[in-house]
Amino acid sequence: MKRQLVLEDGTVFTGEAFGSMKESVGEVVFNTGMTGYQETLSDPSYCGQIVTMTYPLIGNYGINRDDFETINPAVFGFVVKEFCDTPSNFRSDEDLDQFLQANDIPGITGVDTRKLTKIIRQHGTMRGILTAAETEETDPLKKIEATPRLNDQVSRVSTIKPYVSPGRGYRIVLVDFGMKHGILRELTTRHCHVTVVPYNYSAENILRLKPDGMMLTNGPGNPKDVPEAIEMIQKVIPSIPTFGICLGHQLLALACGADSAKLKFGHRGSNHPVYDYETKKTYMTSQNHGYAITKESIEKTELELTQIALNDDTVEGVKHTTYPAFSVQYHPEASPGPDDTNQLFDRFLQMIENYQTQQKEETTHAKA
After folding, report:
1. Any idea of its EC number (predicted)?
2. Which residue in 39, 69, 186, 333 is the catalytic one?
3. How far apart (Å, rounded) are the C-alpha atoms in residues 197 and 145?
4. Is 184 marked within a binding site?
5. What is the DSSP letter of 341?
6. Which of 114, 129, 178, 296 has the most beta carbons within 10 angstroms of its beta carbon?
7. Residue 48, CB half-sphere, CA atoms under 13 Å: how many?
8. Does 247 count as an annotated binding residue?
9. Of 117-121, 182-186, 297-301, 358-362, minimum mean pLDDT range
């Protein structure tokens, strides 16, 4: 079956349909990773987006049970140059087409993804529609225009109720804005007792749990669409060590008075170099975001710039100069991508230990 990807500027790409046969409207973005399509498809941060893979051959190692980042994928569509329907890998349980059908995700193959990526890089991300080519129904551009823009992606992918992943170590509250399983995996590997809570969990309820630390996860969309989280963070960070990742990084910065802006085409892939001012080292990172904290807005806050993107000089990391809180724009848990910055989870736990030691010393001094 022929299928078209129609961009809102009128550009049309025609290819073959695979996966779900449904029609879908979403923001068309591109991912530069050479591998990791399964993790990409199951990353909740892609909620509402039609993802284009820049690597030309996708699906050659199939889909396996171990590399999922969520149970229910939230991506709205998948665009590839060539889809491989005969995967060859000892871990493969099904092919990409079967996975997309099972999760009701439409795909298109046979598209010039190089040309599509160059259009997005030149003109910025734009909305598009995946639709059947042989149709005389409503003009695709009118369908795009008639489809409301999403501003509720976080509520679509966040957990509905709190739940616990037990451990004997530090007690961590993990605020789920669209959590990748890799983040929870890194905390449980370090024996943390993790309580996962919804994105709109109140500061009062978090403080009642008496956590040793709070982690703010990744998630989709515009951070300004989650004002309740910003208010919660403002109340919590003076007394609980906090670590933010991706959307969590943006929300922490907004809570501290910084500002955010939409990037022209975002950072999505597993090969983004980041320079760390503290270690004076460059790390390769995995990223997936369309918004970023503006550098000039940090100067008016108690935040300190700690890391910068070498490709476009955007903000990649900050830390609070008064409170025990820091954040990074990228994914230290990788999945997919390099794990150069995995030690940030250890840094978070060390920050908790240092904070508790400081609190004990202050209490002892006050009693003396």
Report:
1. 6.3.5.5
2. 333
3. 35
4. no
5. T
6. 178
7. 23
8. yes
9. 358-362
Listed residue (144, 68, 81) closest to 115, CA to CA: 81
Q: Which two tokens stand for residue 165?
A: 């992943």
Determine whether 333 is an active site residue. yes
pLDDT higher for 365 or 272? 272
Are 21 and 145 part of one and the same domain? yes
**pLDDT digits over 35-74, tens only?**
999 999 999 999 999 999 999 999 999 999 999 999 999 9
- Same domain, residue pair 346 and 206: yes
CATH code at 81? Answer: 3.50.30.20
CA 341, 352, 320, 186 dihedral sign is: positive
What is the model's pLDDT at position 362?
86
170 and 139 co-located in one domain:
no
Per-residue model confidence as pLDDT tens digits over 199-226: 999 999 999 999 999 999 999 999 999 9
**How long a stretch of residues is the chain?**
368
Distance, CA of 350 to CA of 124 (rounded, Å): 40
Find out whether 250 is annotated in a ligand binding site: yes
Q: Which of 47, 192, 246, 256 is catalytic?
A: 246
Instruction: Respond yes or no: is residue 246 known to be catalytic.
Output: yes
Number of domains in the chain: 2
290 in a known ligand binding site: yes
Task: Tell me: is residue 311 an annotated ligand-binding position.
Answer: no
Quickly list H helices, 147-219: 153-157, 181-189, 203-208
Instruction: Tell me the CATH number at 309.
Output: 3.40.50.880
**Averaged pLDDT score across all residues of the chain:** 96
- Cα dihedral sign, 219-222-225-227: positive
Domain around 203: 154-359
